[in-house]
Amino acid sequence: MPQDSDRVATRGRAAGLAVLFTVGLVACGGGGGDAAGGAAQNQAQTATPPSQGGDTGAAAPAAPAPTASGSAADPSSVTPQAVALGDSVFKGQAGGGTCYVCHGMEAKGGPVGPDLTDGQWLNGDGSLGFIASTVRQGVPQPKQFPAPMPPMGGASLSEEHVNAVAAYVYSLSHKGAGS
User: Fold this and answer.
1) For the whole model, what pTM was predicted?
2) CA distances from 45 to 14, 49, 99, 141 (A)
3) Phi-psi region for residue 178, left (φ > 0), alpha (ψ -120 to 50) or beta?
4) For the chain (length 179 residues), average pLDDT per consecutive 10?
5) Alpha helices for the chain (secondary structure H)
6) Nearest 5 degrees, angle CA 104-CA 115-CA 124?
């Protein structure tokens, strides 16, 4: 028969794991917020896009915004400076970025976010424009992972930081870009 001290230790470990899971889930967009707002947001995000036969009535996704060095979709905007800033945003050292929480510090993926270094894209073509758009809009219904990616990873990134983290992620799977 288990001792009371064993039960307390087991409960303590379970509580610690629950806290870690909750923090990770919230950081990766699974926290939901209030019940009404979370449900409304989830309903809006789960509508079938017009490209798949649905009629959401919503406007089409915004095109990537231009940057000082050209269009966000233009690979010439992937400069060493943009990649360095994007690396800092990705790793939470600038702009309040939280990308590393789900994708790992080296962007190799984890339990709730895919590997961004392998050139295999689950939700698009891997172009710079696609990556920038994904950072801006998030991934409400991931194909292979349990939690959605909120827009901007749940952070309040500036347009400069969005474009920089897109350049960094692009450079990870497009060797030679940004050098």
Assistant:
1) 0.62
2) 32, 9, 20, 8
3) left
4) 51 40 42 34 33 37 38 75 96 94 95 93 92 95 92 94 96 79
5) 4-27, 35-45, 80-90, 99-103, 128-137, 159-173
6) 130
